[in-house]
Amino acid sequence: MDAGSGELVSRIINDTSIVQQVITSYFPQFVSGLLTIIGVVTILLMMDWRMTVLMLLTVPLMFAVLFPLGKRMGRIARKTQDETAEFNGSIQQTLSEIRLMKSSTAEQTAAEMGGEGIDRLYGLGLKEAKIFALVGPLMYVIITLVVLVVFGYGGLRVANGTLSIGSLVAFLMFLFQLMSPLITFTSFFTQLQRAAGATNRITEIVQLKEEAGQEGIEMDISGLPMTFPDVHFSYGEEPVLENISFTAHPGQKIAFAGPSGGGKTTLFSLIERFYEPETGSIIIGDTPIQELSMSSWRGQIGYVSQENAMMAGTIRENLCDGMEEEAVSDERLWEVAEMAYADGFIKELPDGLDTKVGERGTKLSGGQRQRINIARAFLRNPKILMLDEATASLDSQSEQVVQEALNRLMAGRTTFVIAHRLSTIVDADLILFIEKGHITGKGTHEELAQTHPLYQMFAEQQLT
User: Fold this and answer.
1) How many H helices and E strands in the chain?
2) Strand pairing of 253-257 and 384-388?
């Protein structure tokens, strides 16, 4: 489904709310009204079947009015839900990037876009209100016509002596009992059409296929080499990686360098199985990683990115993310915090491990967030470590502390590193220089500095 996170959240919350309202509020009224209608019509048939049949002949007229209005209500409801989802997604994006919005002086633009969204929702709301306002009076008019027809026919019967006045009055009194259930029935029908659009949207989300690879081999990958034999991958028709071939031996540090857009991050995505290679396969030991279960594979990988992202909650919750919090002792948490050089600032916080970090960790500095991410990786004890320019966004002082923590974390683990600054990978066992999806250079820093012209240029610019 091509939708943003805000739109998906809106559909899950707002659309299910509409369905819930129909089920909890309108459906019970519909059931009781339907039972009342069945009971009253049964009594009327027993009293005088001719007048009852005459009354029932107006039912097609009621449906002839309801169906067009109901279909229109359904179309408007779907448009309203789509517009609401888009509006909520836009608001969520604006609020999540509020600092960028302010620094770009884009408040006025955001306000205008929000105003336009509100105007569209207001217009759709008016259309819905007009239909609701029209349905009730139309039903009253139809029921009144039914009463008049029955009254006229009954009057003729009374005049002919085939029906008593008392029976006519009783019949009309029972007929009036149908008015309230019929109005309830029409309200339920229009709300049902409104909920149908919401149900379609919810069904689209529910029917989304679960990520492939949930089932598979549970295997310990400790001490196993990882091989990339001629891996190809493309987004659509545009090739991103071609003829990627290399082997990462246990405990080695493998670095990916090269110009932006060359395919380094995509290669990381293939390792984490966010995507699958089109041809070729990534092999751990003698087993293609596609044969391992997703939980087994990803559970043995540690990932530290340059974004130093965190979840809203406490430091403890962030450290134990993806693990059973009760199974991890405070002693172990402080141990990994010390290994990541994070114990010092955590102890200075008012609630220690239970300090709330704010949305996306905004109450902590970039260096502090990154050290907590490294501590989380220590806690998971990964067999394979992936570092995506983990110190790129830090100041020099924080970078030094974080780099020391990373060096501790990398010890004894197979490590893959994406680097834009060559200073962080000069000690790598193997550097792969990737340009436009191809490996154009392979070797140590010294070897590439002598044999690869573009790498040599990068090294002269950054290391001299």
Assistant:
1) 18, 10
2) unpaired
The answer to whether 261 touches 438, Cβ cutoff 8 Å, is: no
User: Which of 155, 159, 162, 153 minimizes the C-alpha distance to 52?
Assistant: 153
- What separation in angstroms does the CA of 81 have from each of 5, 23, 95, 186? 15, 18, 21, 22
The active-site residue out of 86, 242, 389, 399 is 389
Q: Which residues contact 91 (CB under 8 A, 6 or more apart)?
A: 6, 114
| Sheet architecture: strand order including 283-284 | 238-248, 226-235, 283-284, 287-288
Query: Given CA atoms 102, 108, 113, 116 in this order, what sign does their dihedral have?
Result: positive
Residue-wise pLDDT tens digits, 126-144: 887 887 777 777 777 877 8
Question: How many other C-beta atoms are found inside a 10 Å radius of the C-beta of residue 392?
Answer: 16
Are 435 and 258 contacting, i.e. CB atoms less than 8 angstroms apart?
A: yes
How far is it, in rounded angstroms, from Cα 180 to Cα 174? 12
Q: What is the mean pLDDT of residues 50-65?
A: 77
348 is catalytic: no
Its pTM stands at 0.66
Closest C-alpha to 432, from 240, 199, 230, 246: 246
Pairing of strands 301-305, 238-248: unpaired
Amino acid identity of 83?
E
User: Residue 64 has which token pair?
Assistant: 């002839």
Q: Partners of 233 in the beta sheet? A: 241
